[in-house]
Amino acid sequence: MAKNTHHPLALVRAARGMTGVDFARAIRAAAERRGLRSGTTKQRVYKWEADGVTPDRESQEYIAEVLGVPLEDVDVQSWPNWLPDVGVVPLGPDSTVPALREALRASMDRSRRTVLSAISGTALITLAGAWAATDAWPEVTERVQGKNIGADLVAVLEETSARLTALATQERQHTAALLDAHLATVTDLIAEGRYSPALRPRLHALAASLSQTVAWHRFDHGRHGEAGRYWIAGLHSAHASADHDMGAALLSDLAYQASWRNQPRTAARILERALTRTRHPAARSLLHLRLARALAAQGDRRATLRALSAAEHLLGVPTPDPVPAWCSWLSEADLAVDSGQSLNDLGEVRRAHQLIEEGQSLLPPSRDKTRGVFLAYRAKTHLDLGEPDLAAVTATQSLELAHRIGAPRCVELVQKLTPRFKAFADVEGVPELLAKAAA
User: Fold this and answer.
1) Neighbour count for residue 302 (Cβ, 10 Å)
2) DSSP state of 439
3) To which H or E segment does residue 8 belong?
4) How far, in Å, CA of 248 to CA of 274, rounded?
5) What is the C-alpha separation between 241 and 209, in angstroms, rounded?
6) Distance set, CA 97 to CA 104, 162, 189, 210, 229 (Å)
């Protein structure tokens, strides 16, 4: 029987660079570690990868060991549904480089016109749970003989990456290839091990930060499979240097993506795990704010209000520690708008609209992309309040701003509203909006 290259086992095996022979050998080794024997061959692996052929219980346990899946997660009856998603490299003593290269490979796959699916909620929740329960491992990368890289090179990469990330949105849209190249370089440096112990946390911090930035670029352009893999790669990098706040940030971004994709239950479960280890008040404020959005989408009013109260309290808590760069933008404007979005989901439209309007007025001029998102939110609440003329004006402003600065996510938000506008085709401003949204 010919193998099925679309079977989950074939996909996860190929993602780890293992041939059928390699995989069979690894299964036999897993059996030997238990003092047992397995007769698995590449022919048997190919049969498993063909529809309808199910490994027995012992073989599934060996497969789990080879793939790094805990035995308690193996449900023999649901084969192959318990297999890990391609793209989710399990946290491990030396998992940073495989995770980074998996993300970089995702971009190469896109260039070859391969469509990458978003990673499942179950896989993300499992990864978040492993992060919350596991401490960082000491470095186990074998040192390569030869001259180490110097601190000057790392400093140049840090400075250049920071400057690229700090560009205005309309400029940053042109830097994707540069950021990808920086991340590939940092990945190679970590893999080669040619650096002093003092540079290790800086390289991992840089990999985490670059992964996060690249992920947001992919997310803004609707490439959710790639974005998820970069956020996961960043999580591995942050975990390697025991930066719990950064790890929580990356999990929070994965949760934000889940909410965007209408998976609020997944988002809430990820955020609950992320909150167990993050410590900075501003970081915790952002996570509670995103948790409120996920809870509101599920209609849990009491828990939503509790999360919003925590976010508001934590945002004002003084601390001697500097605010992490990844949440330094969080302000009263964001608190007001996200609170409004949460209340809107709970049916409190009038108060929601007031908060969103208030938040937009507080937003500094430098945050154009966020302004575009806020305008789209305002347009929605205008529609909810039965004000299609005002909604059309606001949505048009969002759309024009998004096109000017290159913010496709804002365009998507407005386009999602167009079916509702079609019922008001005779209202002033609506025909023009629909024409621009369809262009």
Assistant:
1) 8
2) -
3) helix 8-15
4) 5
5) 12
6) 10, 22, 10, 14, 13
**Closest C-alpha among 234, 228, 242 to residue 212:** 234
Tokens 């699916």 belong to residue: 117
> CB under 8 Å to 377, separation ≥6 — which residues?
337, 340, 341, 356, 413
Please state, in angstroms and rounded to a whole number, the distance separating the CA atoms of residues 268 and 286: 13
Residue 423 CB coordination number (10 Å): 11
Reported as a single tens digit per residue, the pLDDT across 142-167 is 555 556 888 999 999 999 999 998 88
**Amino acid identity of 173?**
Q
User: Which residues, other chains included, contact 11 with Cβ-Cβ below 8 Å and sequence gap of 6+?
Assistant: 5, 86
Tens of pLDDT, residues 266-316: 999 999 999 999 999 999 999 999 999 999 999 999 999 999 999 999 998
Q: What is the pLDDT of residues 169-207, one digit of tens each?
A: 778 778 888 999 999 999 999 988 788 888 999 999 999
Preceding amide of 80 cis, omega within 30 = yes
Q: At what angle do helices 20-33 and 57-67 cross, to 10 degrees?
A: 100
Q: Is the pTM of this model over 0.70?
A: yes
If DSSP codes are grouped into helix, strand and coil, which group holds residue 112? Answer: coil
Is residue 416 within 8 Å of 400, Cβ to Cβ? no
Cβ neighbours of residue 242 closer than 8 Å, sequence gap 6 or more: 135, 136
| Tokens coding 288 | 């509670």
Q: Supply φ then ψ for residue 260, to 5 degrees.
A: -60, -35
For the chain, the domains span: 8-78, 89-278, 364-439
Q: Can you tell me the distance from the alpha carbon of 40 to that of 298, in angstroms, rounded to the nearest whole number?
A: 46
CATH class of 8-78: mainly alpha
Report how many helices (DSSP H) and strands (DSSP E) the chain contains, helices first: 21, 0
Distance separating alpha carbons of residues 306 and 302, to the nearest angstrom: 6
Taking the C-alpha atoms of residue 123 and residue 82, their distance in angstroms, rounded to an integer, is 9
Q: Residues 6 or more apart from 357 whose CB is under 8 A from it?
A: 378
Ramachandran area for residue 147 (φ above 0: left; ψ -120 to 50: alpha; else beta): beta
In this structure, the dihedral spanned by the alpha carbons of residues 12, 16, 17 and 20, taken in order and rounded to 10 degrees, is: -50
CA distance 124 to 325: 24
Give CA–CA dist 179/198, Å, rounded. 24
Is the separation of the CB atoms in 196 and 144 below 8 Å?
no
Q: Which phi and psi angles does 206 have, rounded to 5°?
A: -65, -40
